[in-house]
């Protein structure tokens, strides 16, 4: 299922198959800048000695809007931001970039691309800055330095079980808190919507700010966002979020989480939010909404739709693929069951033939890209370029188990790699689709 086959919509501008010659030249120039910075030396950095954790944290005011005691160094994250020079993110971009080793920037770039078409990923940043090449490049660099400092690659590599184990070492009980939040039905991945996109259902009633550390919610958010990227395939580049507000009260409001999520979409995952549906918002939500709207980027705001009932929701998602807790055929409860744990991932990549083939393909892709970017030809349509992307995607899919830890969503049937083919299953809601060659 794709956007083209689902609703017959015309291909969108600024994408791989719809670039103008001028846009294609902009893409080439951006790639040459990327290749150059991936080769820089950077400045060596050694983590400081670990200090004993202090458990005191910020007190929240009513509704999770902040207030109370001001946050201090005593409430720092214990996992996020602990393995890289914090100045890489805190300094202005032009001062921070020369400090970061090029191989670190390259590694996180390719982990961000994952199995997608690399051109498509670069184009998202250029479109987000309306084809201002310098602004688009800076946005991409800002994203890469954020990924390094926030350990986004480690989150994907460790997987839910690996994260749980790491957190338990850092702070007793925090790993279990992460797992219980992940499987609590606060967030459920599914789909597709009518444009073929994956869906993240957020059941807001199960969230209360004070029930867990904010770092747990940030980790869970990043883990779910990165997990949902495993089903990306061209031309479906974006996803859908459904905020299910049935049963919502002001006790469920977490303003810090809202700000974090919005900032992620606007700054670090541009052009990946296809639609945001706010379902069954009660009257009391209007108070909250007046506080959220000033934070919304106009592009994000244009993708938000309110639905009151299943008939309205079915304008965006077919009824037969909606989860039973939305259709009313089954009541949803906060899950407390223990699921079988997927095996923990590792931060040390196995030197397997599949992983080495993937690394070799990255080198080959960059070499071919440099040759293509320096060529005089300006024609946007380039079938050889598409074949290079396909070769890269095949190598990434074959190395999937060495790049990404197995998740519960593999076991639930969202998607999986079988005999070297990436199969999109959407948990049996629609016929299985082989998306291996979708570049």
Question: What distinguishing features does this structure have?
Answer:
CRAL/TRIO_N_dom; 439 residues; 19 helices; disordered N terminus; CRAL/TRIO_N_dom_sf; CRAL-TRIO domain-containing protein; alpha/beta; Phosphatidylinositol Transfer Protein Sec14p; 5-stranded mixed sheet; CRAL-TRIO_dom_sf
Explain what you see:
It comes from Absidia repens. InterPro entries: CRAL-TRIO_dom, CRAL-TRIO_dom_sf, CRAL/TRIO_N_dom, CRAL/TRIO_N_dom_sf, PITP/CRAL-TRIO. It is a single chain. By secondary structure, the chain is of the alpha/beta class. The protein has three domains: 16-48 and 67-152, no CATH class; 186-327, Phosphatidylinositol Transfer Protein Sec14p, CATH 3.40.525.10; 343-434. The protein is built from 19 helices and eight strands. It has helices spanning 3-7, 21-37, 87-90, 93-96, 102-113, 118-128, 133-150, 152-170, 174-182, 214-228, 255-268, 285-292, 298-301, 310-313, 324-327, 353-374, 383-398, 400-403, 408-412, and strands spanning 187-190, 199-203, 239-244, 273-279, 304-307, 415-418, 421-424, 433-434. The strands form two sheets. Strands 1-2-3-4-5 form a five-stranded mixed β-sheet. Strand 7 and strand 8 form a beta hairpin. Helix 2 packs across helix 16, helix 8 packs across helix 9 (174-182) and helix 16 (353-374) runs antiparallel to helix 17 (383-398). The longest helix has 22 residues, at 353-374. The chain starts with a helix and ends in a 5-residue tail after the last strand.
């Amino acid at each position: 299922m794709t956007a083209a086959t689902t609703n017959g919509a015309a291909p969108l501008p600024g994408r791989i198959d719809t670039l103008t010659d001028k846009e294609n030249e902009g893409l080439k120039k951006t790639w040459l800048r990327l290749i150059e910075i991936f080769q820089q030396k950077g400045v060596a950095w050694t983590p400081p000695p670990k200090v004993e954790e202090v458990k005191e944290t910020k007190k929240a005011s009513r509704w999770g809007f902040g207030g109370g005691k001001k946050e201090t160094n005593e409430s720092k994250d214990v996992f996020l931001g602990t393995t890289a020079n914090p100045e890489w993110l805190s300094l202005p971009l032009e001062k921070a970039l020369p400090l970061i080793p090029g191989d670190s920037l390259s590694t996180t770039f390719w982990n961000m691309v994952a199995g997608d078409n690399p051109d498509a990923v670069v184009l998202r940043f250029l479109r987000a800055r309306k084809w201002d090449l310098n602004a688009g490049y800076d946005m991409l660099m800002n994203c890469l330095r954020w990924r390094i400092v926030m350990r986004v690659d480690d989150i994907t590599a460790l997987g839910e079980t690996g994260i749980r184990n790491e957190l338990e070492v850092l702070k007793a009980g925090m790993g279990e808190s992460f797992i219980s939040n992940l499987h609590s039905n606060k967030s459920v991945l599914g789909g597709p919507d009518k444009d073929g996109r994956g869906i993240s259902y957020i059941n807001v009633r199960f969230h209360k700010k004070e029930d867990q550390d904010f770092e747990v919610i940030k980790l869970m958010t990043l883990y779910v966002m990165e997990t949902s990227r495993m089903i990306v395939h061209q031309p479906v580049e974006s996803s859908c979020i459904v905020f299910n507000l049935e049963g919502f009260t002001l006790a469920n409001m977490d303003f810090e989480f809202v700000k974090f999520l919005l900032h992620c979409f606007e700054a670090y995952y541009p052009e990946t939010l296809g639609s945001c549906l706010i379902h069954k918002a009660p009257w009391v939500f209007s108070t909250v909404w007046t506080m959220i709207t000033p934070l919304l980027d106009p592009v994000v705001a244009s993708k938000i739709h309110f639905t009151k009932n299943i008939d309205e929701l079915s304008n965006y998602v077919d009824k037969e693929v909606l989860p039973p807790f939305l259709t009313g055929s089954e009541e949803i409860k906060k899950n407390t069951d223990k699921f079988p744990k997927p095996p923990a991932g590792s931060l040390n990549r196995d030197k397997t033939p599949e992983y080495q083939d993937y690394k070799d393909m990255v080198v080959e892709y960059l070499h071919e890209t440099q040759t293509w970017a320096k060529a005089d030809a300006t024609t946007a349509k380039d079938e050889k370029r598409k074949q290079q992307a396909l070769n890269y995607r095949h190598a990434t899919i074959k190395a999937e188990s060495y790049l990404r830890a197995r998740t519960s969503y593999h076991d639930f049937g969202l998607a999986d790699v079988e005999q070297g083919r990436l199969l999109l299953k959407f948990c049996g809601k629609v016929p299985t689709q082989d998306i291996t060659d979708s570049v």
